[in-house]
Amino acid sequence: MAGCCHHDSCSSSKAQNSPQWQRVLWIALGINAGMFLAEIIAGVAAGSASLQADAIDFLGDTANYTISLGVVGMAITWRARAALLKGWSLAILGMAVLASTVWHAYAGTLPGAETMSIVGAVALLANGGVALLLYRFRTGDANMRSVWICSRNDVIGNLAVLAAAAGVFGTGTAWPDLVVAGIMVALGMSGGWQIIRQANAELTGSKLTPVGVTR
Length: 215
Fold this sequence. Notes:
This protein is mainly alpha-helical. Helix content is 81%, strand content 0%. It has helices at 7-17, 19-46, 49-70, 76-107, 113-134, 142-171, 175-204. α2 packs antiparallel against α3, α4 packs antiparallel against α7 (175-204) and α5 packs antiparallel against α6. The radius of gyration is 18 Å and the shape is elongated.
């Protein structure tokens, strides 16, 4: 019948059009854009691969939230296409972080542990707040889930940066920083793959259960 849809599809559409969802996206967009600028400057100044990796992640998330706001109210096909674009973007960003990490390993850069600790702590607070705001939307369609996956990975990445800072301070070497940057690459690639799988499933109409989602 006209006007009828599957329950999950209806729920997702209502969530996509809700003022709460759009408000959270605008807040997340502002926080991530600001943190990208702060962290890329700090990362370059401190010579930290993990901070620069985290900054690139903030930039990717800024684009993520911008695209999500752009497809609010559109059909699920367009939202799935947007999610597919974000999934591939996340995977490409992961490769960029990998290249940066390899360069730092070759150059033998010793990062500043104090700067890493301070900036990492601020980033953790920012991403933790965004993740809490997005938690209620974590089981939506591919577009909504892509936003949650990015936010969740950010929190994990920030914790890893703090661990790297402690490792650099304790060992006096750059290897903890490089190892954490490598972990963040794996997180980015894994998150991108999850998003791509669900977006492709929505585009083809198959019933793929998102990885890590409990109903």
